[in-house]
Amino acid sequence: MIEFRDVTKKYPDGTVAVDELNLTVEAGTITVFVGPSGCGKTTSLRMVNRMIDPSAGEVLIDGEDVRKSDPALLRRGIGYVIQQAGLFPHRTVLDNVATVPLLSGWTKAKARTRAAELLETVGLPAEMGKRFPAQLSGGQQQRVGVARALAADPPILLMDEPFSAVDPVVREGLQDELLRLQGELDKTIVFVTHDIDEAVRLGEKVAVFRQGGVLAQYDAPAEILARPADDFVSDFVGRDRGYRGLSFVDNEGLPIGQVDTVLVGGAHSPSQQWTLVLVDGDKPRGWLAPGSTVDGEWTTADALAGGSLYTRGTPLRGALDAALSSPAGLGVVVDDAGAYAGVVTAEEVLKVIESRRETAE
Ligand SMILES: Nc1ncnc2c1ncn2[C@@H]1O[C@H](COP(=O)(O)OP(=O)(O)O)[C@@H](O)[C@H]1O
Ligand SMILES: [Mg+2]
After folding, report:
1. pLDDT (tens digit per residue) in 46-66
2. What pTM value is reported for the model?
3. Is 38 in the pocket of ligand 1 (CB under 6 A)?
4. Which domains does the chain have, with CATH numbers?
5. Does ligand 1 come within 6 angstroms of the Cβ of 43?
6. 243 pLDDT more than 60
7. Hey, which of 15, 158, 159 would you mutate to test ligand 1's pocket, going by the most ligand atoms within 8 Å of its Cβ?
8. Cβ–Cβ under 8 Å, residues 33 and 190
9. Where is each ABC transporter domain found (predicted)?
10. Atom of ligand 1 at shortest distance to CA of 161?
């Protein structure tokens, strides 16, 4: 368990990066810190492993003030993963992963065996251990970064925008991998991102920060979507997703909206909105992120995997899953024949589910 108690960080130039933060990260969960750039996410994260010390207040791990720990020892018990992986360029992948066990006094042979196991754990073939970081793709480097952070089997993992530099398709693969790993490893993970969709997808709890280092809301993701604490959170989670209001209410009472669509093989028409890719005339295949462009015609390869589909008339839980698993934050609704019918937001699905609960009570 990690506790922030009245934590404030004021930099010497007067910038208040974190303002009286009070928050508890439960052991064995993924907690996501999300918010726009400059709102104090990184500063908060780094106060856990003492890369930064608070100006006031305290950070406790399992009840113990981190300032009582030796920083070097503390960090061995805390894995740290950053954007672009931060690998040592002149060491092989295997040696990168073996770094922390070696620092902890393991023999070279034992550290390397452990490193090889970890490459497998994060889904990389053993041969890649011999390569240098520059010889891997961005996504592979991030996997190595995760393997390195896990090497000493730390109970805590701090991840600062670890997947922000890779393209959306690879990012989704890495997110899936992290969720799978967490299912096995049960770490206490604090994950920083500026992307609300990533936060909602990964977080069991999500902390939304605003400018000035203020915690705006700390809740389960579905709660944040359904009941934003204020206008800031509401704007932040509801950022324009290209969702064009209501087109009809289905027989479950669920409001269905519409988005732009493109056909695979269709002409190139870039959109500033999330756009749904259709195949065979009307079957949803995936999403194009705002601003996506191609030379010529769209192909299925251009589409981001789309999350689950919701078939009209089936239990509403499926509509919520569809919305939460969609990269666009919009669940795709299909008819019995699998044809695109519209989209739903998690917020609206939850409203319908709740109003039924109230009626039933
Ligand atoms: N060393 C520093 N000195 C002065 N201001 C800083 C320093 N590091 C960060 N800041 C400022 O503190 C605020 C929070 O930064 P940061 O925690 O990096 O935000 P985030 O990770 O949410 O983008 C920003 O206004 C940033 O400019
Ligand atoms: Mg940051």
Report:
1. 999 999 999 999 999 999 999
2. 0.71
3. yes
4. 2-237 (3.40.50.300), 244-360 (3.10.580.10)
5. yes
6. no
7. 15
8. yes
9. 2-236
10. 21
